[in-house]
Amino acid sequence: MAGIGLATSQIASSVLVSQFPPPREDPFIITPPFYISVLTGVIVSIIAWILLTKIRR
User: Fold this and answer.
1) Which of 19, 37, 48, 57 could form a cystine bridge with 13, CB 3.0-4.6 A?
2) Is this model's pTM higher than 0.85 or not?
3) Number of Cβ within a 10 Å radius of residue 44
4) Inter-axis angle of helices 2-19 and 32-56, nearest 10
5) If pLDDT is split at 50, 70 and 90, which confidence band does 37 have?
6) Which residue from 15, 9, 4 is spatially nearest to 35, judged by alpha carbons?
7) Burial class of residue 24 (count of CB atoms within 10 Å of its CB; 0-12, 13-18, 19+)
8) Residue 28: pLDDT above 70?
9) What is the DSSP letter of 6?
10) What's the CA gap between 7 and 20, in Å, rounded?
């Protein structure tokens, strides 16, 4: 599950940074693309966890 979240987060981060490059003086960890990519990864991980628990029943 962590792999799914990390992969989704990386894809979202790459897309957002290529479309909206942050200013050079800001560290990447405080930019909106970082927060959006982390949130996307968490949401996809939760969805995957819910689906996997339903399949096991």
Assistant:
1) 37
2) no
3) 19
4) 150
5) confident
6) 9
7) exposed
8) no
9) H
10) 20
